[in-house]
Design a protein that fits this description.
binds 3-methyl-2-oxobutanoic acid; about 40% helix; alpha/beta; TIM Barrel
């Protein structure tokens, strides 16, 4: 899919049909202005639970709540007209049972206008994915490094190296067979990502995976250089907005203290402007 060819926001089936074609383009977004900036350039936009770390200063995604996702989902939705919106199910909102997952996914879809939900997990979440899809909720799966499980994975490590590759392949096949319309592969070896891409019939969306995936996603604050607490190897910074922003704020502070801001063009005379 290309930005210029788009006439309406893609549906999950359009994303699925893009398998093997021009790579799908995706970024995360959490606010209306960011969504507006990327709308014409992305096939889908993810309201990621990374919002907890990049906007709210949380140490991980585990503290993100349904209410936070709803609020950011509504903001992003207001900024999109041509990209599909996918929204993350936060930690604790879907793992307990398919019924719990349905209740929370339905709330996210109805209150934010998202076109699909994303949830983390492979073989163990396949029955939940099938339950949701059969009840009208399109699901994007997320396997490999699943940040909501860092406490059991032992941190943000590469997943699927060596013998663990078989389990990751089994996860990919399970979520595809369960009816997911696409699967995010996070932080997996390049060769394994290529094998998964060849094996499953749904698009693979890479983040720290391979250029051979059917699409790519990055956290927007990472690629714009706005989130600087740390930089994962898979992040490419296309801009340095935190540095630019701090320089601008420092310049403003200096001008305020020197009384050079506001200048003549920023203040009002007591006479009404002549017509
Ligand atoms: O929450 C998020 O931003 C994500 C992407 C990293 C895929 O899940």
């Amino acid at each position: 899919m290309s930005a210029t060819a788009k006439k309406r926001a893609p549906m999950p089936d359009d994303i699925r049909a893009a398998k093997g074609g021009t790579p799908l383009v995706s970024l995360t977004a959490y606010t209306t202005p960011m969504a507006q900036m990327m709308d014409a350039h992305c096939d889908f936009v993810l309201v990621g639970d990374s919002v907890g770390m990049v906007l709210h200063g949380l140490p991980s995604t585990l503290g993100v709540t349904m209410d936070m996702m709803v609020m950011h989902g509504q903001a992003v939705s207001r900024g999109l007209t041509s990209a599909m919106m996918v929204i993350d199910m936060p930690f604790g909102s879907y793992e307990e049972s398919p019924q719990q997952a349905f209740r929370n996914a339905a709330r996210l879809m109805s209150e934010t206008n998202a076109g699909a939900v994303k949830l983390e997990g492979g073989v163990e979440m396949a029955p939940t994915i099938a339950f949701l899809v059969k009840r009208g909720i399109p699901v994007m799966a997320h396997i490999g490094l699943t940040p909501q499980s860092i406490n059991t994975l032992g941190g943000y490590k590469v997943q699927g190296r060596g013998d663990a590759g078989d389990a990751l392949m089994a996860d990919a096949i399970a979520v595809a067979e369960a009816g997911a319309f696409a699967v995010v592969l996070e932080k997996v070896p390049e060769t394994l990502a290529d094998e998964v891409t060849a094996q499953v019939d749904i698009p693979t969306i890479g983040i720290g995976a391979s250029a051979g995936c059917d699409g790519q996603i990055l956290v927007v604050d990472d690629m714009l250089g706005l989130f600087t607490a740390f930089k994962a190897k898979f992040v490419k910074r296309y801009a340095h907005l935190a540095d630019d922003g701090e320089a601008a704020i420092a310049a403003y502070a200096e001008e305020v203290r020197a009384r050079t801001f506001p200048a003549a063009e920023h203040v009002f005379s007591d006479k009404a402007p002549s017509k």
